[in-house]
Amino acid sequence: MTEQNDTRESGQAKAGAIIVPVTLFEQNCTIIWDEPSKKAVVIDPGGDVPKILEAVKQTGVTVEKIWLTHGHIDHVGGAADLRDALKVPIEGPHQADKFLLDNVVESGARFGMTGVRNFAPDRWLDEGDSVSIGGLQFDIFHCPGHSPGSVVFFNKDLRFAHVGDVLFAGSVGRTDLPGGSHATLINSILTKLLPLGDDVGFICGHGAGSSIGQERMTNPFITGEM
């Protein structure tokens, strides 16, 4: 059911996380929760909503929010249905991805994904905003390039980030989709993510996670720009 189960603790903050791979894209739908309260958020429910709901049940948490890193179909395809099922608000991404959320059905059709719906979040997110779940607070960084409205969620106390498809272990997000820009993406990584600190670990939208320090030293898309 889940690909990864992780816990992080710093001072008074303690959190847990599991990854639920969804859709044919094996997208890392992530459930993060505040350990003391068991209040949780689902990040990027791209599809397979019954699978996500079963993971929530098995984990024993109470989901209070849905957060979106960006508007691509493999990250948002199940968002509307999950919102209806859990009766919780959707927060994110940045409003620059509105054109993607307005065309979820069309995007899904291109990949044979049926039953998806266009939708709008309950709250758009922007640089400098913050979101919270239980006792956990995450700062928002607007990191365009993979998509115009991509955002990153960063918890300073836990030294942890969810970066969506901005940065990967050994790679970066693709930029050949509408609104993408490689130069803009690299600038987002260099000016927004690397300054967070080498000790910051992250979950990304696909594949294994990594750390800022590891990517600063070994990621060929970054080392060639420094």
Automatic annotation (TrEMBL):
Pfam families on file: Lactamase_B
InterPro entries: MBL_Glyoxalase_II, Metallo-B-lactamas, RibonucZ/Hydroxyglut_hydro
Annotated GO MF terms: hydrolase activity; metal ion binding
Cofactor: Zn(2+)
Residues in Metallo-beta-lactamase domain copies: 26-206
Keyword Zinc included in the entry's annotation: yes
Key words of the record: Hydrolase, Metal-binding, Zinc
PANTHER family named among the record's database cross-references: HYDROXYACYLGLUTATHIONE HYDROLASE GLOC
Protein name: MBL fold metallo-hydrolase
Protein's organism: Bradyrhizobium cajani
